[in-house]
Every structure is written in C-alpha cells, then in structure tokens.
Design brief:
The chain is α/β, with parallel strands linked by helices. Helices cover 32% and strands 22% of the residues. It contains 13 helices and 19 strands. Strands 1, 2, 8, 9, 10, 11, 17, 18 and 19 form a nine-stranded mixed beta sheet that branches. Strands 5-6-4-13-14-15-12-16 form an eight-stranded mixed beta sheet, sandwiched between helices. Strands 3-7 form a two-stranded antiparallel sheet. The two termini are 30 Å apart.
Length: 441
C-alpha cells in the first residue's frame, strides 16, 4: 500500500490529483519575471503576477510540489511557531511585525479563495485546529494565545476540558486552544492545483529544469541558465527553500535543515472515526516535542513528529512510538495500528522561525526560512514577493529586504537541543501537576 515515487513512500503521491502537463525548458525564453522553485511560495507568486498581466516563467528542478510543499503533513493553521505575537513585535520591530502578522493570520483566507476560485481538488476542509493543554502549566499560555490572536482579528477561543474532549475524542487534555479558521488538505494536491492555476492564467512552468546559474545578461536583465536552455528576465526570484540546490552562490547557507517525518495509518473503521477526531479537526498534543495529527479524506490518521534519538532512525521503534502515543491519546482505539505510509521531509530553519527575504542583486531576490509553517506561510508569501516584483517600495513590503546572510553555526544543532529542552520542560510540568505521562515521553 505504498507509492514509490520521487517523493518517497508518501500518502500524498498515492492520492493527489494528477499534475498538469509541463515540459523541460529547451532553448531560450523571455520573461518579465523568472521564478526558481515551484513550491507554494513560487507558485502563488507566479499566480499573483500572472493575474496582474506579468509575463512569468517558473523553473523547477523536479516537479511542482516536489519539496516541502508536497511532503508536509497537510496542516493549514495560520499562526506562528515558537514565538508569540508580542515576541515577534519586539524581534522584528514595526511596521514589519504588524504587516507580517496581518498576512500570516489571514493566510487561510487566501488559501480558501484560491482553492475555491480555481476548483483545486485537494481534500480541503476548514474544521479548525486544537492545541491541547496536557498539564495545568499550559493553560495560561493558551489563554494568552487566545487574547493576542483575537486582538489581530483571528477567530480563536479557549475550550474547557469537556469541550476539548468532545472536539478531539481524547480525555488527555485539561483544556485547549481552538482556532476556528484552521484547515487541512492534501498538500501535493494543493501544489499541483496551484500549478494548474498558474498555467491557466498564462504563465509558463518548466519542470525537470534546474537553475544552474543566474548571471547578468549582456542585453540587460538576467540570464537564468538550465541544462538545456535559459530564461532572459528583468527580475528573478528564488523560492527553493530547504530544497535549494545551486542557482545562486551561498543561498543554501542561509538556513539549516531540520528533518521531520510523517506517517499515515490504515483506513480506520467508521466506528473509530466517530469517536476519534469526530469533527475532523487538526490536533496538536500541546507538547513542545510535538505530535500533530488529522485525517485524510480516506479516513487515515496522518501524524507527524520530529526525529529524536532512535525515533526516526529505527523504523520499527518509531512506528511503535507513534502507535502508542496515538492509543494513549485515544484509549478507545483497541485495534492494532498499521502505518501504511511513512516519509521524511526537510525544513529550512531560521533562528527567528519566520521567512527571510534577501536582496541578492538589483532585480534579484530570494526567500528562505519558512521553518515548518509551509501551507499558510507559503501561500501568503506570494502576495509579498509579487509586490516586490511589481516595484512596491521596499519600506512598504511586509518583509524587510536583507543582505544575504549565512545561518549561524549553532542552527545545525539548536533545533534538536530545543526539542529536547521542551520535552524535559513538559515532563517536569506534567509530573508536578499530577497529570499522566504519555508513553516514550
């Protein structure tokens, strides 16, 4: 029941709607804007520009959605990870923080509109997201999220123990944060649907066409070379993220890789689905060492975690950890859990965990550092990158243009150490509060 593909043994490759037809770039083409990378950020940028009448060419080394856009777990929750909104304001300063907060927290409006307007077949449901409170110490933090996110227009609320149990089907949470606007989807199906929309709007996508170099063109503008052709463009945007290979010197040094794994169960019986995630929401177990899960359209639970120690290396042990955590969260699951699909993805991590927009040269920009907020973040970035390409003044953009900067050396190990710290912190707080401990915590 696995699908062997360039994506690995992914559920999404087995179930996504087919990709639109695209060709390898042969010879020379001209464009106003050349976009390198056909993930969410690149495709939504191309879509925005094409709708504005701009001549756009997209180059992709593999196929649309090949990177993180086709491998993620399919959660679409328009929030920030790691940093609270007040922390973001202190870190980014104004007006940058408020502009980015507005784009991110309204990202699902854009996702929903694109899926509706272009009839994208991607299992989209907008049934909300719940972050559980696994111990008493988590409740104040959740209430703070409700207050700060609602202050910027989000539709969220605190739910008590009884309501969170009703929504999730789990007795393990003391309360929770319900984000009403969150959703989930088939991420590869969404990427392919965006590619189809880009083509529909008149832009060109060339797959199997890796950008080898980007140099000034003798006649003006830039020449982006591939193995069998090149694009002459006035402006160039790199949106290759964690899957950056060449194209511009040292762009792949602007982030460090953090691996994540995703797995999908067998199709669960209807009687289980009536009591486990009965509202088809996305669930975050509330721990820093996260376990996030939801259903796909077939009724498989799709869950994700980060590798740690044996977890992620020893596959039998990893499946055991995931099964026992799921059954602990939902004691009503009495049958054996079989993980039919199991795959890895890579995140382009930044210490700020927000995207970075780099000014590479006059008319050339790059964006990396989504840090795991792929679906909503990648979808809203198209509006920012298209504004840059259309000549909106730098001081009016929602991301500040920066010089190319390598990620600090400690980012090679900081995310893993942070996960271990979160795990220890949560275990201490759980024991102090008298709450039950999950297996393998």
């Amino acid at each position: 029941m696995t699908a062997f593909s360039p994506f690995g043994t992914t559920l999404w490759y087995a179930t996504a709607a087919p990709a639109p037809h695209t060709d390898v770039l042969m010879g020379s083409v001209k464009a106003d804007v050349c976009i390198v990378g056909a993930g969410y950020a690149g495709l939504t940028t191309a879509l925005e520009l094409a709708r504005a009448g701009v001549n756009v060419v997209v180059l992709e080394r593999e196929e649309a959605g090949f990177g993180g856009s086709g491998r993620n777990a399919g959660h679409c929750t328009p929030t920030f990870t790691h940093y609270s909104l007040p922390e973001l304001r202190r870190m980014l300063g104004e007006p940058w923080a408020e502009r980015l907060i507005e784009r991110q927290t309204r990202a699902n409006d854009r996702v929903s509109a694109m899926i509706r307007d272009y009839q994208i077949d991607c299992e989209w449901v907008q049934n909300g997201y719940v972050m559980g409170a696994p111990h008493k110490g988590a409740i104040d933090a959740i209430r703070h999220k409700v207050e700060t996110y609602n202050a910027v227009g989000a539709n969220t609320r605190f739910v008590n123990r009884d309501e969170v149990a009703e929504i999730t089907g789990s007795p393990r949470f003391l309360g929770g944060w319900l984000h009403e606007e969150a959703g989930h989807l088939n991420p590869l199906g969404y990427a392919r649907g965006l590619a189809r929309a880009v083509l529909q709007e008149g832009a060109k996508i060339f797959t199997g066409s890796a950008a080898i170099s980007c140099d000034r063109n003798a006649g003006g503008g830039w020449r982006v070379a591939t193995e069998k052709g090149h694009v002459i463009a006035d402006k160039v945007i790199f949106t290759t993220g964690a899957y950056t290979v060449g194209g511009w010197p040292k762009l792949d040094r602007t982030f460090k890789i953090q691996r994540v794994f995703v797995a999908a169960t067998q199709i669960l019986p209807e009687e289980i689905r009536r009591s486990v995630l009965p509202r088809n929401t996305t669930i975050h177990d509330g721990r820093g060492d996260i376990y996030v899960y939801k259903y796909n359209a077939e009724g498989r639970i799709v869950a994700s975690m980060f590798p740690m120690g044996r977890r992620g290396r020893d596959m039998a042990y990893t499946r055991q950890v995931m099964s026992e955590r799921l059954k602990w969260l939902h004691p009503q699951i009495r049958e054996d859990i079989r993980w039919d699909y199991f795959w890895f993805g890579e995140l382009d991590m930044q210490y700020r965990t927000v995207p970075r927009l780099y000014d590479l040269a006059p008319g050339v920009a790059a964006l990396t550092g989504l840090s795991g907020r792929g679906v909503p973040t990648g979808s809203m970035l198209g509006s920012i990158l298209s504004e840059w390409a259309l000549g909106i003044p730098q001081n009016e953009l929602a991301l500040k243009l920066e010089p190319l900067t390598s990620a600090p050396f400690y980012m090679a190990f900081a995310p893993a150490l942070t996960l271990r710290y979160y795990r220890l912190r949560d275990n201490i707080k759980t024991r102090l509060s008298g709450a039950p401990m999950p297996p393998h915590a």
